[in-house]
Amino acid sequence: MDAIVNNLSVTDNDNRPTQAEAEAAVLTLLRWIGDDVAREGLIDTPMRVAKAYKELFSGYDQDAEEALGRTFEEVAGYDDIVLIKDIPFFSHCEHHMVPIIGKAHVAYLPDGKVVGLSKIARVVDIFGRRLQTQETMTAQVAHAIDDTLRPRGVAVMIEAEHMCMAMRGIQKQGSTTITTTFTGAFKTDPHEQVRFMTLIRG
User: Which of 26, 38, 123, 158 has the fewest CB atoms lying closer than 10 Å?
Assistant: First the structure.
């Protein structure tokens, strides 16, 4: 649960396949599924897929701690819950590389400083744009905020539908998976957890 997927190291970046190699891999998959790679509709598909993957998995090239870097201490003594709910995101299952579509609810209890609200959504985006399990992503978002902002507590809930369940295998459309991670006061004080849940469902 506490696993954090770090950015690729310089060595890993140096060893990344080229654009041409990525496109060749897509071409191989198209042949493998049995389609005609010479037909008009597929001629530019390898290039498009490689370009789309670069965008869909851009989280590997971004640092959540850097995104949270700027904080504000002029909060007029405010120290109660800050909640950003219904943050839409999409990710991809690391087991089948098919979409995970959902929303995140993120809260923290400030300890003298706050962070721009858009930065919280940015952190969800950064971890979403990587191959994921929902459990890992939930923990990553919570720990990135906890480690960088050092609040009195962090609460994260993610609700998502997994296309690996909807499109293949058991094929159960519409089922939702819910995961939570709590740190600090949210973990030790049941009252704070109840407040978090009440605000989300309110």
Answer: 38
The active-site residue, picked from 21, 65, 66, 95, is 95
23 catalytically annotated: no
DSSP state letter for 75? S
Given the residues 92, 105, 143, 162, select the one marked as catalytic.
Answer: 162
Assess whether 92 carries a catalytic annotation.
Answer: no
Residue from 23, 105, 134, 143 carrying the catalytic annotation: 134
Q: Helical H runs in the chain? A: 10-14, 19-33, 45-56, 64-67, 117-128, 134-149, 163-166, 185-188, 190-201
Tokens describing residue 176 = 């939702």
164 is catalytic: yes
What is the pLDDT tens value at each position of the chain, 202 positions in all? 444 444 444 445 678 899 999 999 999 999 999 999 999 999 999 999 999 999 999 999 999 999 998 899 988 989 999 999 999 999 999 999 999 999 999 999 999 999 999 999 999 999 999 999 999 999 999 999 999 999 999 999 999 999 988 888 888 888 999 999 999 999 999 999 999 999 999 8
